[in-house]
Amino acid sequence: MANPLDTDAGSELFGSYEAELKLVQADLNQKLDQITELSGEPRKSAVRLAERTLDEANELLGQMRIEKQNIPSATRSKINQRFRNYETDIDAQKRKLKTLADDRKALFGNRYSDNPEGQDQQLEQRQQLLSGTERLDRSSQRLRESQRIANETEGIGRDTLADLQIQRETIQHTRMNLLESEGYVDKSVKTLRGMARR
User: Residue 147 burial by CB count (10 A; 0-12/13-18/19+): exposed, middle or buried?
Assistant: First the structure.
């Protein structure tokens, strides 16, 4: 029978991140294709959505980077190659998104051509603020989830300690009963010896 420790212990979680990343990449490719067909406000909205999806892809890459360290070195070389391919793909998508986002005429139309400097700067600052707020919201959600998991873990720890305390008391009680029984056995042996001498 194979030792369960010989299997790819970390590859299951890595695989789930990988499957999720593939879905996110497909979604990002679809969003990038849609951006090319849009202009003005719809295009700006599509760029923002694609940026959020790209952030999600980068977060998944980060999780995969951490998880691949838990994979046995015998299989890690194949995982590393796949990981590098994903990094290359995400970089290409990032460059494509940057090119689409930098196409000012398609993004804003001709209405900003008279004074592009001031308008572009305001819009860029607004986009940065919105992007920062969204990142902060996502970080807050992750923090709340981490807090929930910590509370659950603390509760499990408390329950385990309570169970251990009960088991300790049971063992001590059993030990005292054994010692008491041993005393009775000793007395019985002495009584039997005394009776045998008579």
Answer: exposed
